[in-house]
Write a structure and sequence with these properties.
The complex is a heterodimer of chains A (138) and B (446). Chain A is mainly β. Helices cover 9% and strands 33% of the residues of chain A. In chain A, strand 10 and strand 11 form a beta hairpin. With 446 residues, chain B is α+β, with helices and mostly antiparallel strands. In chain B, strand 17 and strand 18 form a beta hairpin. Classes of the chains: A mainly beta (138), B alpha+beta (446). Chains A and B meet through strand 5 of A and loops of B.
Chain lengths: 138, 446
């Protein structure tokens, strides 16, 4: 929790049973409205291929479906349900509704500017990789 | 996209004029039209990439996200129902490398997702995400310009969805013209209209598509020969002229059909539809249509070029009563000598349940890949295509001269030219004449 609360939408911008995407400081924030005033906020990029999720009605009323590879995330806790691919759960960020009907989300610091051709963080440290390679060959 | 007639070369490479392939008034058809690759290419360019063709029935797409994959002029297409309830049709091809984005015959999806690199389109065809978008130079990937390519025009009549690749094509209503009067008989007679039952039968045949369309222009006179086993089983009267009455009708611009009355028995009124529906039929049809519907039992026809229908009463077997069914089928050329057949069973939505079952059983026993009539027809159309591929055979034309001396009946109350009797080749020739006009750029000369 970064305490960087940002006012990102009005409650009326988010239709119940659907999601709404906001761009904020090089991040995408997916605001989900489950019921009248039951809200969730997630990192708006799929943890699998970093694809922005598509806002709109929840699939079957309960899922957020990644447009690219079809991952099905539960709208209420971000967890992955049986899907065509395997990936971690969505990252949830704290969300609150102000008395005057605004949606505020505690969004972490923006990520560093990506550098073209850099090694993706998913590879981890070189030491981990070489350890993994040794494990495979032994 | 459309080419005007003035630009058409009407000669084949060997100098033969397209005008010499069909003699509509003399009743003569060249065998080359059933097997020649050059004619096939001209047909694709001048007819199939321009004419309105049937794609699907609205009842096949029930919920948002439901899609169907079909073909239009040999190109893969997808029809999908949007979240707004509207049915749209697109070239089934990703804008990135051209892969098909929908690969099943039918499915229900949130996104049309390319299996190659993952580009994803929403239910209205808009590109939603491309892989690694952050690696594109800002402004390079204009997603708003990279939606799926819509079919140039789509339209619907009585729940039947048609499409054309030609932006200059006149409206679907104009194209169907007076054939709408006859389509209403089968598709507009009950309050809620017709629906497709299940999925269509699809099968590939080694025949030129025109043999199928030719047969469905209202050829009643092949029944006693091609389907002789049905007569021998006792399902048709032993008199070979028993189905020679009724009318052959050229509605307009190559759209043709026949209508044949049943025996004087109320069971054959209204094409044998269950009595519960008669009141609706009488109410929904116009006075002339009502009269025609009441007094006929069989009808077969073709909406030019390649959508045909059967509204017929048949026995599924000797113990079963005569039961009607309504079938629409599309003849899609896949090469000069092969055709993909897609056959749909339609039912009036409000028909009683036992009738629906009986109608389905009558259809599958007689038509579709397992049907006794269909198998007889395939054998003939495949052999016709094989033989007419021969260069020696092609030196001789085919005779289409039955009933050419007969004049249209001036008393017939419906639109079009209605020739007396249902044994005759006027409707075949009207179909071939229109085909020739499309290939020479003079089509639709109503």
């Amino acid at each position: 929790m970064s305490g960087r609360w940002a006012r990102l939408a009005r409650l009326d911008d988010v239709v119940p049973g659907s999601s709404h995407m906001v761009d904020h400081e090089r991040r995408k924030v997916l605001i989900v409205r489950l019921g009248d005033d039951e809200l969730r906020a997630y990192d708006g990029r799929c943890p699998h291929a970093n694809t922005p999720l598509a806002p709109g009605p929840l699939v079957s009323g309960v899922h957020i479906e990644c447009p690219m590879h079809g991952a099905l995330f539960r709208a209420d806790d971000g967890g992955l349900d049986p899907s065509p691919i395997t990936c971690p759960a969505l990252t949830a960020w704290p969300v609150r509704l102000t008395r005057d009907g605004h949606v505020e989300v505690d969004v972490p610091e923006p990520p560093a500017e990506p550098r073209a051709g850099a090694r993706p963080v998913s590879w981890g440290a070189i030491g981990d990789l070489t350890a993994a390679a040794r494990n495979t060959s032994s | 996209m459309a080419t005007t007639a003035a630009q058409y070369d009407v000669h084949l490479r060997d100098g033969t004029s397209l005008h010499d392939l069909i003699d509509e008034h003399g009743g003569h058809v060249s065998r080359r039209i059933y097997a020649d690759p050059e004619i096939y290419e001209l047909e694709q360019e001048r007819l199939f990439r321009r004419a309105w063709q049937f794609l699907a029935h609205e009842s096949e797409l029930k919920e948002p996200g439901d899609y169907l994959t079909r073909q239009l002029a040999g190109e893969p297409i997808v029809l999908i129902k949007g979240d707004d309830g509207q049915i749209r049709a697109f070239l089934n091809s990703c804008r990135h490398r051209g892969m098909r984005v929908c690969r099943a015959d039918r499915d229900s999806v949130s996104f049309m997702r390319c299996p190659y690199h993952g580009w994803a389109y929403d239910r209205e065809g808009r590109l939603i995400s491309a892989f690694a978008e952050e690696l594109y130079d800002p402004g390079r990937l204009k997603k708003e310009e990279l939606g799926l390519i819509p079919i140039t025009q789509i339209g619907a009549y009585r729940g039947m969805i048609f499409g054309t690749w030609d932006e200059a094509a006149p409206s679907l209503d104009y194209y169907l013209g007076d054939m709408r009067f006859y389509l209403d008989l089968y598709l507009g007679r009950t309050d809620a209209g017709a629906e497709v039952l299940g999925s269509p039968h699809v099968w590939d045949v080694r025949t030129n598509w025109k043999f199928a369309a030719d047969n469905f222009t209202g050829d009643n006179f092949h029944l006693y020969t091609a389907h002789g086993s049905v007569v021998e089983l006792g399902m048709l009267p032993p008199d070979p002229m028993s189905l020679s009455f009724g009318n052959l009708i050229h509605a307009q611009d190559g759209h043709v059909l026949h209508i044949v009355p049943g025996p004087p028995d109320p069971a054959f009124a209204h094409f044998g539809l269950p009595a519960e529906l008669h009141e609706q039929v009488e109410r929904n049809l116009g006075p002339v249509q009502r009269e025609i519907h009441r007094n006929h039992a069989w009808s077969v026809g073709t909406v030019f070029p390649n959508l045909s229908f059967l509204q017929v009463m048949v026995q599924g077997d000797l113990e079963s009563p005569m039961v009607p069914f309504l079938c629409f089928r599309v003849w899609q050329p896949t090469s000069p000598t092969t055709t993909r057949i897609t056959s749909f069973l339609l039912l009036d939505r409000e028909a009683p349940e036992d009738y629906r079952t009986a109608s389905y059983e009558a259809y599958v026993r007689t038509f579709g890949p397992s049907g006794i009539f269909e198998q007889d027809d395939m054998e003939n159309w495949e052999d016709c295509t094989r033989v007419n591929s021969g260069k020696i055979a092609q030196g001789y034309g085919l005779h289409h001269g039955m009933g050419l001396h007969l004049e249209p009946d001036p008393q017939f109350p419906g639109p079009g030219k209605a020739y007396p009797g249902s044994y005759g080749e006027r409707t075949q020739l009207a179909f071939y004449g229109e085909w020739q006009r499309w290939l020479t750029g003079t089509e639709g000369g109503r």
